Amino acid sequence: MNVKEKPVEPTWAERLNAIEEEVGELYLMDSVPWVLGYSGGKDSTAVVQLVWNALAKIDPKKLKKTVHVISTDTLVENPVVAKWVTSSLKRIEDAAQKEKLPIASHRLMPRVEDSFWTNLIGKGYPAPRHKFRWCTERMKIDPSNAFIHKIVKKNGQAMLALGTRKAESSTRHAVMNRIRKQAEKYSLQERINPNLSLPGTNVYTPIEDWSNDEVWMYLMENKNPWGHDNKALLNMYQGASPDGECPLVVDTSTPSCGDSRFGCWVCTLVDKDKSMSAMIQNRDESDWMLPLLEFRNNYLDFRPADGSKEEQTDRERRDFRRINGSLTLHRDRLVHGPYTQESRKELLFELLKAQKIVRELGEENNVEHAANLELITMNEIEEIRRIWIEEKHEIEDLLPSIYKDATGEKYPGKELKENLLFSKDDLQLLDKTCEDDRMQYETIRNLLDLERRYRTKARRSGLLEDIEKTLKRSYFENEEDALEWAFKKAGKNNPESEDAEASVA
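Predicted structure:
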């Protein structure tokens, strides 16, 4: 009787050689440029390293298309990781030029109007939450998509190579399988699938079947070709693990640091920033990040300290009207909108103060990166000032004084091109005249600002509409008055007996 022989599993070395050959074949297949997504983490590092090594084996005469390594800096990344990525991109660029490889690196950033602080402190968007996740698209997706669109527009197509892996999580595994099934009828070949949201872009995931430990084994056994130390990357993950350990797994009982997640230090989509907390706990030289963690927990996190989900702690810091002035009822309460002027002032002051403390700690402890850390850029600060004055009619122009109070330094921004309508004393007199009625004060202030703006225009069309909007926004004496009006507008005579949602303009 013939016994069917069990197929021999390829060795790790054979698997690596096969992947590098696959990368080379795909590169030579056509003239389509490649885009590699690089975050500085272990998976994207492994992908860039694989592609680099594959290109190094190809006849230089055949290297005729560019491989673009892109990394999106949201400007609120974990500072340690941000420094690592910036340094990596520079090393990649320099080493590629030296070895005459067609690899170019690009640090992408959101437009100033899309940045985190512009939207949070400038416009007053509340800290992101799962039902209002306004940050990801503006700060991460849009910059990379804009770059890819340019590549596609110029070349007709683009190949996007990513470090996505099935082993990362059950959710991501399911997403990858769903995308693959959706794309089957369009598949160019087994290892490539079109990106359904980016026309003209194909996706290649060379390490999708690797485990966490195989990623680390590859990085530890293979020298980083652009000169960065992969052991330092391992140490960074180790420092971001709560237990301080990041071993290579030898059995199912051994923990791995594959779950370490580096992201925005301001992120409120998670309960706690575990990676930054672990870095501070595990590394004496990371104590300077404590002011960032405290700012995130004290001024951005909206979760109650006891872990309950009944009430969001930032409710009282937000306007009872939506950002366009409308009212929204939900479960017999008004859905609060953007941060109030007072809250935005506090957020900016505390952020600048945290920046000052971090820089002082950096100087004291000889940590150059911390000593020069910029938590918020001057471009963002200037845009916040513009939004406050021009869009929110906050003609008090409080930003320069907030900056000076927080930093002890004179505001270095631009001088306003035109004088404000009233001086600080005039506005204080207006406030006093309104007898601490904030709604009345804001209404009069906003109307005066509208008049000032339209006064210099040749045509005053639109003035009446803007006046009407201002008056509608300030129609109520307070939140209780607005709630009563909203119930009447929604036709709810007995609000406590219903549980409905209605928008009322």
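Summary: Strands lie at 34-37, 67-72, 103-108, 158-161, 192-194, 201-204, 327-330, 333-334, 501-504.
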